[in-house]
Automatic annotation (TrEMBL):
One of its GO terms (molecular function) is enoyl-CoA hydratase activity. This is Enoyl-CoA hydratase. InterPro entries: ClpP/crotonase-like_dom_sf (IPR029045), Enoyl-CoA_hydra/iso (IPR001753), Enoyl-CoA_hydra_C (IPR014748). Keywords: Lyase. Signal peptide: none annotated. Coiled coil: none annotated. SUPFAM superfamilies: ClpP/crotonase. It is an enzyme of class 4 (lyase). Belongs to the enoyl-CoA hydratase/isomerase family. Its EC number is 4.2.1.17. Pfam families: ECH_1.
Length: 270
């Protein structure tokens, strides 16, 4: 049964449904532009996904046909009217960076479901996720340089590590908009679906991830992140250290039994 979680805020709704948590940026009157209420909610939601043992995957999306139109500097600099949000803003160190997935990315996968604009900070949020489903009418872009600003959410570093260098520089230095098809062609998004279908496709991907062994999934993410930039020999040593722990787990034994018995595996994360 779907459950609205206590970490939700007026601008960020967090719903747990089984092992999947859906995080919805909810400020439709401003095309889900970032605010203090939203960033605190995002930071808490990502922390919950990371720490809650029952959660295996998260989905990040936006309300009412928009993903996120970037930062609303006025709203980000204005204290929330919600007492709990004000308290959490004081308690969470660097809540802006955690909310933007610049810091403390969850150890579990995040799937982005993108409809409409995902620009500036919206594109930076997309770059912090692991699988990205874009509706045909979605738009992407890092507009900061065009406005004399800097992409503080991490894309000045992260983007060229995810997509070819020249495409990253084109996006960062020209500040132009990209269609969903262009974003897929350069590898920024995983695939493009019809308008209105991004959430269903993201849910399908999340359910496929949730059916896998959680130790294996988290180990794959961990090895990728920890070995980025390492020489292959050094990276393989990290991979072996982490991988053999997974291979010795109860989940690995259960996976083999389930295969032999022609049934779905019942993974416990141990």
């Amino acid at each position: 049964m779907a459950e609205l979680l206590h970490v939700s805020t007026p601008h960020c709704h967090v719903i747990k449904d089984g092992s999947i948590v859906t995080v919805t940026m909810h400020r439709p009157e401003a095309r889900n532009a970032l605010s203090t209420d939203m960033l605190v909610g995002l930071a808490d939601a990502f922390g919950y996904i990371d720490s809650e043992p029952q959660v295996r995957v998260g989905i990040l999306t936006g309300a009412d046909g928009a993903f996120c139109s970037g930062a609303d500097l006025k709203a980000m600099g204005t204290p929330s009217e919600d007492p709990r949000v004000r308290r959490r803003a004081a308690e969470i160190e660097d809540f802006h960076w955690k909310g933007l997935l610049r810091q403390a990315r969850p150890s579990k996968p995040l799937v982005a479901a993108v409809e409409g604009p995902a620009v500036a900070g919206g594109t930076e949020l997309v770059a912090g996720t692991d699988i990205r489903i874009a509706a045909r009418g979605a738009t992407f872009g890092l507009y900061e340089a065009r406005r004399g600003l800097f992409p503080m959410g991490g894309c000045a570093v992260r983007l060229a590590r995810q997509i070819p260098y020249t495409h990253a520089m084109d996006m960062l230095l020209t500040g132009r908009s990209y269609t969903a098809r262009e974003a897929a062609d350069i590898g920024l998004v995983t695939r493009v679906v019809p308008d209105g279908a991004a959430m269903d496709a993201a849910r399908t991907a999340a359910e496929a991830i949730a059916a896998c062994g959680p130790l294996a999934v988290q180990a794959i993410l961990r090895v990728h992140r920890e070995t980025e930039g390492m020489a292959e020999e050094e990276a393989l040593r990290v991979s072996d250290r982490v991988g053999w722990q997974v291979m010795a787990s109860d989940d690995a034994k259960e996976g083999a039994r389930a295969f032999a018995e022609k049934r779905a595996a019942r993974f416990t994360g141990t």
